[in-house]
Amino acid sequence: MIAPSMLKCDFGNLQHEAERIDAAGLPLYHLDVMDGHFVPNLSYGAMVIAGLRERTGVPFDAHLMISDPAAFLEDYIKAGCEAITFHIEAVPDPSELLKEIRNRDIVSGLAINPETSFEQAAPYVEYCDLLLVMSVRPGFGGQKFMPEVLPKITAAREAGGPDLLISVDGGVAEPTIARCAAAGADIFVAGSSIFDHSDYETAGKRLVDAIAQSTEAA
Ligand code: DX5
Ligand code: ZN
């Protein structure tokens, strides 16, 4: 699944961006929420997501790069997110919040920064529907993919089994996506590799083809 990262889109014309994403058949919106505190950048929050919700029926994953995800959970549920992903580094113990998200019939996601080992997340995988492995330091689009996170994806797939969704986020592009797939990821967050192109459908297909070609070659 290719999930366009709504950090690199044209914020001056969100409706048009939604139309282009949906026409391209991209199956999941990745919504990067930044509070200027957990990460050194500020993006948008639940009000903007609620507005975008009116424009598309495609599922939303809110990637909360914020210091206090529990305090704002209700806002993102009300905004209509199908998945809510928060960072393990932001909370002392993610168990209760993951359980609460699941209890509300929303996909529960836990994100880990490049410096965080899989072992730190492992005790909570049983409460996770989705593990998001950051392959750049969170905060900005357009950064270079960090291949050293690939073994974490493999470890997560081994521990989580086939039902755990594993998302990889940061620098995912034609030269890097096949390695993420081979390691066991199934959701590929794509900012620059979609929005730097004029045709989102072709850009999405190129990413999918890059995975297929490397599988055939193997
Ligand atoms: C970074 C965000 C990513 C980012 C991806 O903090 O979580 O979703 O926008 O952008 P690219 O694909 O350009 O690295
Ligand atoms: Zn993200």
CATH architecture: Alpha-Beta Barrel
Distance between the termini: 21 Å
Unreliable spans are: none
CATH superfamily placement:
Aldolase class I
N-to-C series of helices and strands = EHEHEHEHEHEHEHEHH
Strand content: 15-25%
The first-level CATH class name: Alpha Beta
Number of DSSP E strands: 8
Average pLDDT number = 97
Class inferred from helices and paired strands: alpha/beta
Query: What is the strand arrangement across the widest sheet?
Result: 1-8-7-6-5-4-3-2
The largest pleated sheet is described as: 8 strands, parallel
Radius of gyration, Cα only, in angstroms? 16 Å
Total domains, how many? 1
Helicity, as a percent range:
25-40%
Number of H- or I-type helical stretches: 9
**CATH fold description:** TIM Barrel
Bound molecules: D-xylitol-5-phosphate, zinc ion
Shape: globular
Would you mind describing this structure in some detail?
The protein is an alpha/beta fold and 218 residues long. It has a single domain (2-217), classed as Aldolase class I (TIM Barrel, Alpha-Beta Barrel), CATH 3.20.20. 39% of the residues lie in helices and 18% in strands. It contains nine helices and eight strands. The protein has helices at residues 14-23, 46-53, 69-78, 95-103, 118-121, 150-160, 174-183, 192-195, 200-217; strands spanning 2-4, 29-34, 60-65, 83-87, 107-112, 130-134, 165-169, 187-190. It has an eight-stranded parallel sheet. Helix 4 (95-103) links the parallel strand 4 (83-87) and strand 5 (107-112). The longest helix has 18 residues, at 200-217. It is globular. The structure holds D-xylitol-5-phosphate and zinc ion (ZN). The site of D-xylitol-5-phosphate has 22 residues, from strand 2, strand 8 and helix 8.
